[in-house]
């Protein structure tokens, strides 16, 4: 039996890895922008894997993890920007 590659499997694995890393990054406020970027890349890779005909647990896990990483990364990033803006406004009001 020869070793055959399944089309889209590498994109599905890369999607799952990007999703996992994006979830890890949104725990840290500074790297939430990286979480957002990696989540979007994971979604694109998951979509590419599906277009190439690979539909399995790895592709689904990559899609779900990337959505979670993107949503929470965006929320954390927006809240960090809002907090920084409030600190800046408070500093101007005191001066």
What are the key terms here?
95 residues, mainly alpha, rod-shaped
Task: Write down how many β-strands occur, each being a DSSP E stretch of 2 or more residues.
Answer: 0
Low-pLDDT residue intervals, each spanning 5 or more residues: none
Radius of gyration: 18 Å
The general outline is rod-shaped
- Put simply, the count of helices is 3
How does the major sheet shape up? none
State which percent range the strand residues make up: under 5%
Q: Report the structural category.
A: mainly alpha
Distance between the termini: 76 Å
Look at the structure and give the mean pLDDT: 86
- What is the helix/strand order? HHH
Helix content: over 70%
What would your notes on this structure say?
The termini are far apart. The chain is about 80% helix and about 0% strand. Helix 1 packs antiparallel against helix 2 and helix 2 (about 30-50) runs antiparallel to helix 3 (about 55-95). The chain is mainly alpha-helical. The protein is built from three helices and no strands.
Question: How is the topology of this model organized?
Answer:
Layout: H1 9-25, H2 32-51, H3 57-94
Please provide a brief summary of the model.
79% of the residues lie in helices and 0% in strands. By secondary structure, the chain is mainly α.
């Amino acid at each position: 039996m020869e070793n055959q590659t399944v089309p889209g499997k590498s994109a599905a694995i890369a999607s799952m890895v990007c999703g996992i890393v994006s979830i890890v990054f949104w725990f840290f406020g500074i790297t939430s922008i990286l979480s957002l970027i990696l989540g979007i890349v994971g979604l694109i890779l998951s979509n590419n894997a599906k277009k190439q005909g690979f539909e399995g647990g790895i592709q689904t896990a990559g899609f779900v993890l990337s959505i979670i990483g993107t949503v929470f990364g965006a929320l954390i990033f927006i809240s960090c920007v809002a907090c920084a803006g409030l600190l800046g406004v408070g500093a101007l009001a005191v001066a």
